[in-house]
């Protein structure tokens, strides 16, 4: 299976590294606009192959999309990351143009491609890919929920003083500082609701820290995170490549599900060989439903700034 990763920066290179290390793809093509950058990252990563024991061939190109032809999956990470103090939404002005152009190039050379959108503001960039690519909706998947859920589990494990392998949980709704919805009501430690172990103060801490997970790292790093984003993408690509039919929260075009339409938002979905196999309808509490609707309202406002 051939995977293209557009943007060979921090997140793109991390995606390529995790995909290669898991050894389930024959080829990863890195594309960047910066002369020689993708080629350099690909060469550096290939020189880890004998050390890390993978056979995936990684190549790089400066903007030559003919090299991406026949890609089964393409991951869009091109665009600028935020700096401390910024929101993801502030990136729309620059990133929308980049994502639109990249999408056109990808689809031209790989008309059957499944696109995973990473560039921020991710829910809006996923919506843009729907509006401009001509691809069927099961082939466009925004990455946010997989990462946010991993951060939720990290914070749950911290609060529970438990190993991360003991905890499970999911984050849906928007991939934004305010619109994320960590489903505490459904989070468990070995099948037992975490609400049985955590008092109100700890529950609030877990939710708030999860929501600002990206901002916290941006403040520490001076730019946004890349290891967990790359790992999250690799899980999604593997679910497609190996037809795993894993349930992963992803930003998907809704058509009545969760009471919303004509918007991309994070919802649980079954991810397999066809991309989105099914959106999973789970029962939310009244409070969760209200928060989901609030997140949708905010994302819709950002979508309003798009020009097609
Ligand atoms: N959805 C999510 O959960 C996450 C999203 N992100 C987003 O991912 C994006 C990338 O972040 P980083 O990798 O840290 O940034 P970065 O600056 O390290 O890399 C971005 C790369 O995109 C390239 N690029 C720009 N325009 C291009 C074009 N037209 N064609 C091909 N390549 C192009 C740049 O040359 C650069 O190498 C940002 O928008 C960031 O906000 C980051 C982490 C998580
Ligand atoms: O925080 C950011 O800007 C990057 C991102 O989406 C994340 O790490 O969740």
From TrEMBL:
Residues given in the record as NAD(+) binding sites: 7-12, 32, 95, 118-120
Lactate/malate dehydrogenase C-terminal domain mapped to chain residues: 147-299
Keyword Cell membrane in annotation: no
Catalytic activity: (S)-malate + NAD(+) = oxaloacetate + NADH + H(+)
Keywords, ordered alphabetically: NAD, Oxidoreductase, Tricarboxylic acid cycle
Primary enzyme class: oxidoreductase
EC number per UniProt: 1.1.1.37
GO biological process: lactate metabolic process; tricarboxylic acid cycle
Lactate/malate dehydrogenase N-terminal domain residues: 1-142
Active-site residue numbers: 175 (proton acceptor)
A Pfam family reported for this protein in Swiss-Prot or TrEMBL: Ldh_1_C
Superkingdom assignment: Bacteria
Keyword Acetylation listed: no
GO MF annotation, one: L-malate dehydrogenase (NAD+) activity
Binding annotation for substrate: 82, 88, 120, 151
Function: Catalyzes the reversible oxidation of malate to oxaloacetate.
Family, as annotated: Belongs to the LDH/MDH superfamily. MDH type 3 family.
Protein name per its UniProtKB record: Malate dehydrogenase
Organism: Chryseobacterium taihuense
